[in-house]
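Proteins fold reproducibly. Next comes an illustrative record:
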Amino acid sequence: MSVLCSSRSLWKLDLCTSILPQIEELLQSKYESYVQTGCTSLKLILKRFWPLISETLTAPPSVGVDITREERHQKCKACYKQLKNLSNVVKNKASQVGRHGSAFKELQLLMAPLD
């Protein structure tokens, strides 16, 4: 996962739908490096994909058949659901003291539009 974080060009919406469930496990890990990787990955997803997810979910329905758009809408819906679940984890961890606490507070600010 940390390799993916360093190669931001590899990130696509498909990857987000696969990675988001794993991020929850990383954020709740007892290992500091796992938590840090989870925070970094989530921050990358929020900064890079939240505008697309938000725009896709709030866009009016299209006229006619657009399979690509429908697939993107389903992926965005899945990502939104997973991000909503992660926002509860982030809120609970934001009260921690230290480096992780500040990382979770930053994530909480980035996740504010989900509420």
